[in-house]
Specification:
The protein is α/β, with parallel strands linked by helices. The chain has nine helices and 14 strands. The longest helix has 17 residues.
Length: about 325
């Protein structure tokens, strides 16, 4: 997992399937078949794109058994089907599922969301992810520390299963505007020392974003690193001293909205979190654009409302 991440969003995958549509239509497939669970979203996208029914296979990695998991019958022998999986990995899932369908007399074409240098089988259709770690929207939790630890235990045979996906949800939060009120920027320009003293004396908000603080891994703030000592004093005074603190390095990111957002997005990815709660709407948009699979929530403290943010560059 030390490779650079290639984030593949639902929209990215949908556009890719749409680009394949003319070729897929020409193949005259009778059905798209998804391997549960990762292949299911792609099989559904294909089904909508080319107007064929969709069915699913269930695969057990330990026994290497394949089961037909659909109310629809297996298509007649001799017909063409498109088998969909999220990634052609180094394991046997895809090859075993192809063999299962071929044993029923079907002509099988394969489509995977990604293929890399470790893939055992070269799919007929795939996004080239060689040199990258392809990350899909349904497995955004894969970069959390807990998931990596659990996965290592499964790989070593010390555990038989991972936890449910939602149990890996991990948060990072902004500081000013989330735990305490923002001091207007004009005050810093007028009298920096007085503004900092005013900020140090602020009390936490009575109402914080509706998240379990036990799931908060770190605070990622746009405050510069030189403010660390006084910031840690405030956090400890108000019961937040147990949270790790990531501050902005001015030589890497300036204090502009773009600089602060770039710092926060990069830190959130390094920290391996699934969610980030941000107080500034512009920064929330920029963070979401920089980290497409991070769930970014803009928290508006005055109205006590949160908005899930998604953003892409306009081209």
């Amino acid at each position: 997992m030390n490779k650079p991440v290639l984030p593949l969003t639902y929209e990215h995958l949908d556009h890719w399937i749409e680009s394949l549509r003319p070729d897929l239509l020409a193949q005259n497939f009778t059905m798209s078949i998804g391997i549960l669970r990762g292949g299911a979203p792609l099989a559904l996208m294909v089904s909508h794109a080319i107007g064929v029914p969709v069915a699913f296979l269930r695969y057990d990695r330990q026994s290497r058994s394949v089961a037909w998991d659909s109310t629809l019958p297996i298509p007649p022998a001799g017909t063409k089907v498109l088998l969909c999986e999220d990634i052609a990995g180094r394991g046997l899932t895809l090859t075993d599922c192809v063999a299962f369908l071929e044993q029923h007399g079907l002509a099988v074409t394969t489509l995977t969301g990604a293929v890399d240098e470790l893939s055992r089988l070269q799919p007929d259709y795939a996004i080239d992810a060689r040199g990258y770690f392809a990350l899909f929207p349904w497995e955004r939790q894969a970069y959390t520390a807990r998931y990596r630890d659990d996965w290592a235990q499964v790989e070593a045979g010390q555990s038989t299963a991972l936890a449910e996906d939602h149990e890996y949800a991990t948060y990072a939060i902004d500081l000013d505007g989330i735990l305490l009120p923002d001091v207007p920027l004009a005050r810093y320009d007028e009298d920096l020392a007085a503004a900092l003293a005013e900020r140090d004396a602020l009390l936490p908000f009575d109402v914080l974003p509706g998240i379990d603080l036990q799931r908060v891994r770190t605070i990622i703030t746009g405050r510069p690193e030189l403010d660390r000592a006084r910031t840690e004093v405030w956090l400890a005074r108000h019961g937040f001293g147990h949270l790790s603190l990531v501050m902005r390095a001015p030589h890497s990111h300036d204090e502009s909205s773009a600089g602060a957002a770039a710092h926060k997005a990069a830190a959130a990815l390094r920290e391996g979190v699934t969610h980030f709660v941000e107080s500034d709407p512009l920064q929330a948009l920029l963070i979401a654009r920089a980290a497409p699979l991070l769930r970014v929530i803009w928290w508006d403290a005055p109205t006590r409302t949160g908005t899930l943010v998604d953003a892409r560059a306009w081209r």
